[in-house]
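Q: Structure tokens for this one, please.
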Amino acid sequence: MEQLRQLGEAVGSINALMAFEQELRINPRQCRLLADACAQALAAVTGEVRAQLRFEERGAKWRPIEAPLRELHRAFRDAESYVRQCFGAASAADGGGNSSWWWGRAAAVAHGTECVEQHLHAILWCVAVAVEAVEAAAEIAGSDADAIARRRTVLAKKYDRDTVDPTLFQSAHGSVYLVSRELGARMDMAWKEDRWLLSQLLEEMKSPAAARPLTKAERRLADVLAAPRGKVHPASVLLTGAGEYSVRRRLGGRLKEAQWMGESFAVKHLAGDAAEAEVAVLASVAHPNVAHAAHCFRDEERKEYLVVMDQLMARDLGSYIREVSCPRRRVPFPLVVAVDIMLQIARGMEHLHANNIYHGELNPSNVLVKPRQQHDGYVHVKVAGFERSGTVTSGAKPSANNGNANANASDGADTCIWYAPEVLEKVAGGDPAATRTEKADVYSFGMICFELLTGKVPFEDNHLQGDKTSKNIRAGERPLFPFQAPKYLVSLTKRCWHADPAQRPAFASVCRVLRYVKRFLVMNPDQQQGQADAPPPAAPPADYLDIEAQLLRRVPAWQRGGATRVADVPFQMFAYRAVEREKMAAGAHAGGRDRASDSGSEGNSVCGEENGAGATTPDDASSTVSGGTVRSRPESSDGKRTPVRKADGKTPPRQTGSQQKVKPASAVKPPTTGRKTLGVKPEVPARRPTSGHASD
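A: Here is the predicted structure, written as tokens:
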């Protein structure tokens, strides 16, 4: 009940603000859309609670809905902050207040897409999780066995295989999941309508009949705000206009923090022959998880561009991980926060790839973070440094020319640790442009996931450096997780750094998997991780990568790729839940028939062995563990496995059978002889004496 009260309070605060909607001058349509979405979300969730749960059981039996409602409350508070930010510029537009401050606020928020891509994305995801949590609580509500059986039958029909269709889902559940046609159309049009309304407002302000005529400098600012994103303006508008521009400090590389019109901005200096192309790339994208250009200026005398970025971020991800790490915590973040960071990075990369932009330099120094206002551990993430790719040099330090808040990716670590093996092969052959490919970015993302989950830079414990590290990566060496991390995330990470680029998932698939992983963690708060003595987290009831593979075959729209529309997120969550229930039912049926059956296959398992990679990494028979890393054994031209030669010239002993060669011998579990069946508990072999290693 307390969570429902807090939700009502947050919606009431937003409605109180929107009572003065006529005073809004910046993003009025988006603010109204956000207010309506919050109100509809509250009505949908409370309606489900009222219909399916019993008020007198609001104690223990309502507990499954508490964590999802807290996430929804967090999304409401973020939405309220956005509305307040837009309201902050209301008075000066009519001639009162601090005019310079209004111009700065308008410049900061007028081009952004946060309303739909960030806030509505969070609200729709939270509603889908909250509805499922209510359904889970309803399955145990009451004491009437017949009533419980009826509710379970209704749920089974709701998630029937034939209902996994976007059109049917919208027709049957559009009002509950906030994906009605009317709301979807508003999501698509709100930003465009606000841009048109702003241009009309600026024309009125420039009119001679305005209450306070604009100065010449203010007219030039009005032209900047009304211009489409990417248009280049004279630098004099920025440097000597009415905005009182001043540089406050250097942020590293080509970035500076500047004060302009009362607001703090990140300003990027670009010069040289490639500057014009870089500006065009920065201005061609707009997403809350991508550091993009808001306004562009050119200094003709100095032959350089000054790009005002969309938001000032605090620091880069590598610096932030080192800052929050401490000896008392095994990992730098709670598991749900780490997954949220991974999801934001994946969403930013999904947007870039949908616009045919491939990063080529994805590493922690090119991921910028900013703690959220609520001080709950969550951060806002932006992918940066994609406007140009550097030159890959084995053993070289990460270059600062990407212009982010921190010049070094890993405090002296080799640059090559973030590059895919096929990239290192081509660069060694004299093709530095090979860094920019879709699958190479996915590999780099997998390495970032490793650092997020462990707090360790990949290969930081390896004694090899420079060109030897590059050779070992090309030979199949990968970081070894230093403790028992969640297997479903370990296997997803290993799929991303798979030696075969064709086996790496697209970022659209990664986003869908991570959304559902985050849902699993929110609905199971006891699975959170962070303390050194925390118990090993349990695995989800189904294989999410296998679910994704099945849905890719069922839903043709997912096969076409492209960035996911926010309005499609609830259906994706629904489809995952439907297939998950289908797999759980099939597993329970198979388990009842023959619990000892070995007919299943781990195939694409996300929940496979921690030190293995299921179908997403090389076979167990073709990998070794050495020096804290996992090495895949490449195939020769005749199809046989060839021995892996380390960069130091030593060849590991030849393996026999499918058992891994391990250093030390007690550090890795022996492989099981049978294969798992999805949904069936495998036979447990006799336990061997433990050696104290994390793998035990």
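A few notes: The two ends are 43 Å apart (CA to CA). The first helix runs from residue 2 to 18.
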